[in-house]
Amino acid sequence: MKPQTKFIYLFLVPALLLLTLFVVGPMLFTFAMSLMKWEGTKVVGFAGLDNYLEVFGRREIFYPKGFERGRPPFGALVHNAIWILIHVPLSTVLGLLLAVMLRDVKGAAVIKSMIFLGMVTPMVIGGVLLRFVYDKNAGIFNEFLRIVGLGYLARTWTAYPDTALYALILGSVWIWTGFSMIVYSAGLETIPQELIEAARVDGASELAIFRYIIVPLLKPATIVVVTMSVLWVLKIFDIVYVATLGGPGGASTVLALEMYMDAFFKIPPNYGTAAAIASILTILTLGLAVYAARYMVGEIACIGTGFRAARGF
Amino acid sequence: MKLEHIVVGLLIVVIVLQAVVISQLQSTVATLSAKLDEVSSKLEENTAALKEVSTTLSEIAGKVAAPPPPPPTPKKEVELVVFSLWGGKEEENFLKALKAFEEKYGIKVKHVAQTTEGLMVGLPAQFAAGKSVADVIIVPWPAWIRDLAKQGHLLEVTDLIDPTKYPKSYVDMVTVDGKIYAAPFKAWAKPGFWYRKSFFEKHGLTPPKTWDEFLALLDKCKGIPGVEAPIASGDGVGWPLSDVTEAFIINRGSPELQLKLISGEITFDDPQVRKVFEELVDLLKKGYFSEPDEWTAQIDKLWEGKYCIYFMGNWMTTMPQVKDVNDLGFFPFPEAKGVVAGGDWVIIPKYTEHPDEAKLLLKFLAGPEAQEIMVRQGGFLATNRDVPAEAYKPADKAVVDFLNTPGLVVVPDLDDAVGGEFQRTFWDQLKLLWVSPDALPDVLDALKEAHLKTLGKA
Q: How far is B114 from chain A (nearest CA, A)?
């Protein structure tokens, strides 16, 4: 082994040690908890996969009857998937459009700050705000409906099973778009201006420049936005807890909320099933994160090589 | 070998090392613990011997001269920490009782308002570690108190209170193997509907006594301009909806129906239960109940005349949204057969560092003096029989009079008593029922499933 390699390992040790103690250790401990049988706060035996079977057998986690009726609840597992399917594309596209539109606008920093405020706001406050936004009497959303002549649709959107989940997802998009906009704004700054100017000289339209130059070169930013959004949505908890508590009738519940309920809300608590849900969440997020990280590293390396080649480095 | 393989290998080595270190630590701790036990047992032997010597010396001294032992004087510098679930106006009222205690005994008391989760999750963890931040705790869960007592976490208070001064059930609920582990403090009830007297007078409405009069009242209310719905529906966690539903189970069904549901003798597919829910759904479909909204905000709307009546517990009289408590009227559930009632009990953790002072506070709170202070402020029903009836405010007095109705059966709260997963499901499914009354079959299925599962009968 080269002396340089030895140093690399030496420098890796502190970080690995901390990661092991505070990330890997608790993860393994949680997994071990999920395999135990609990009575209140005490372990009373080995449960094997019983906790997992119980979790997947619950209507709060998976409720196929919802599909027959065509409206929530479908169960937390499906709700999380719906969050990803709606939230991620919407917040990504909105963030990109806002970043591009505000690129050359005077005073854009102020507008961007205002959009980013949602991201800075604690999620619990975000949840409270959403409750108000969708309130039948006090909500700005219903007021908007009244102004445009759709007042007959006014209702407390988070109180109904067919709208609660989607209302929360849209509210969450509003909160999260600030993040994707900022990442895309930073990404736009890295695109060499000469590429865009060269395209203009060659007669390319603004739409073609956006489609064939900006979007491909923003791929690293897109990977960051999509990955972070998916991870954020998988772990979504605060907004749901505050705005609907997963209701009505489990119509807006999510995995993280079910985990919290099992561990801290129910009397007595059920740490076994809570740990099982936590482990399922960990596997989902970890798998995605590892895949995205590997992909990202590869893409950035390719783009970097491309740039260096293009610029003759 | 690739770098990532080496890193993964290193990670595994670190985990193994961690496991080895932990096992070493555990064995060291076990050794130390054994040694400590040894020292502790020796100390106990020595203490016992010293006690014997001390007793003998006392006897000798007693024969020589017997001056009466001075009463134990509490240390002035002690500050007791009290936990309860009361915030806002309730806490404000409670602090007055604590102040009276401070003035009487010269012991400082610090009240820390807690959340349900804070107590439920935090206290068992502290007790398991042999510690307690609080010296005195006030909780409304008798089953929980009994569990803590069985686990040896509470001080026995049998000698501190006179059980004959309280309703028997309030003492029985916190008695384990003939020993009392908590002192009854507050009683509460969920007796019926509240309304604004001036609103009723203005619109010529009268409190109903029969079910038909009740339906007529709802019908009349619905026709009043500005009224969104006759009955306000409280939301939030979900208990306001379960409270009014239980009132239907008890009074449109029977108190026995509620008790059978609590014991699990029947569940939510029982024809009688279904009938009660169908009656409730009928009212929901007729638009007699409002859309659920935050329960305290609903009191504001009741006061503004957007609703006629609101089903709520006796704490309604302490709510800051009630602008004038003298304008607040109450009528029991029509043709009432029973009522949900419960209480708050005072407990002392075994691990308190100030047991003598804590016992003084428990005795004080269980006594008529503290409870009268609370009663005079409103929204508080005393458990101690020595509290004079004239101390109650009119609205509270109406509730007390109703609770004294001959033949009225007092039953526990259904979701509190069953607890566990059922409680959350009950609250959540009722939210669904309120906005989708057609979902009744699904709601009853979900309730049955959670009910049986929680009671271990699935």
A: 15
Residue A200 is encoded by which pair of tokens?
A: 């203009």
Same domain flag for B199 and B307: yes
Q: What are the pLDDT digits (tens) for A252-304?
A: 999 999 999 888 877 677 899 999 999 999 998 888 878 777 776 666 556 55
Choose from A267, A273, A286 for mutation: most chain B CBs within 10 A. A267
A250 contacts B428? CB cut-off 8 A: yes
Residue A210 near residue A100 (C-beta atoms within 8 A): yes
Is residue B43 situated within a structural domain?
A: no
**Entry pTM:** 0.76
- pLDDT greater than 90 at residue A22: yes
Considering the domain architecture, whether residues B213 and B292 belong to the same structural domain is answered as yes
**Domain shared by B369 and B334, yes or no:** no
pLDDT range class, residue B48, cuts 50, 70, 90: very low
Q: Tens digit of pLDDT for each residue in B333-386?
A: 999 999 999 899 999 999 999 999 999 999 999 999 999 999 998 889 999 999
Question: How far is the C-alpha of B332 from the C-alpha of B247, rounded, in Å?
Answer: 10
Which residue from B124, B428, B435 is facing A160, i.e. has the nearest CB? Answer: B435
What domain range includes position B298? 190-340+414-454
* Residue scoring higher pLDDT (B129 or B307): B307
Record: contact B431-A247, CB cut-off 8 A: yes
Question: What is the phi-psi region of residue B349: left when phi exceeds 0, alpha when psi lies from -120 to 50, beta otherwise?
Answer: beta
Question: A18-310, what's its fold?
Answer: MetI-like fold (1.10.3720)
Q: What is the pLDDT of residues A152-196, one digit of tens each?
A: 898 899 999 999 999 999 999 988 999 999 999 999 988 998 998
| pLDDT score recorded for residue A263 | 86
| Tokens 């069953």 sit on residue | B418
A268, two tokens: 């007595």
Number of independent structural domains in chain B: 2
Lookup: tokens for A263: 């561990």
Residues B307 and B244 in one domain: yes
- Shared domain for B226 and B331, answered yes or no, is yes
Q: In terms of pLDDT, which residue wins out, B200 or B70?
A: B200
State CA A142 to chain mean position distance: 26
| Axis crossing angle, helix A76-101 with helix A164-189, rounded to the nearest 10 | 40
One domain, residues B358 and B316: no
In a domain, B49, yes or no: no
Residues 12-41 of A with CB under 8 A from B: 12-13, 16-17, 20-21, 24-25, 28, 40-41
Cβ-contact B298, B307 below 8 angstroms = yes
